[in-house]
Amino acid sequence: MGRTIVYSLILSLILSLAAPAGAVFAMTDLPDETEGLVEIADAVEGVAAVSGDLAEPGGEISTEGGSDLDLQIDSPAPAEPVSQPEPIIDMPPETPVINESDSTNQVAAANGVVITELQTRGVAGATSELVELFNASDNEVDVTGWCIQRASATGLGFSNVTCFNPGDGLAATRLIMPAGSYAVLASDSLILANPGFNYDLRFSGGMADTGGRIRLVDARGGVVDLLGWGGASEYLGSRAAPAITSSQPVRSLHRVVNAGQYQNARDNYRDFILDIAGNSYQAGALYEVTDLCLNVAGIQSVIPEELWQIASGECVDKISINFCPSLMINEVAANTTRQYIELVNSSTVDLDVSGCRLMTNRSSSLSAELPDLVIEPGGFLVIYIDDTELKLTKSTSGTVYLLASDTVTELDQVFYEDLSTDTSWSRFGAEWKQTYSLTPLAQNQHAQYPPCGDGYWRNELTSRCNKIAPPTVLAACRDDQYRSEETGRCRNVTTSRQLTPCREGQYRSEETNRCRSIASAVSTLKPCADDQFRNPLTNRCKKIASSDDVALADCGEGRERNPQTNRCRNILSSAMPTAPFAPEKVAYTAEGLWGWWAFGGVSLLALGYAGWQWRFELGRAANGALRFFASRGKGGM
Question: Is the whole-model pTM more than 0.70?
Answer without folding.
Answer: no
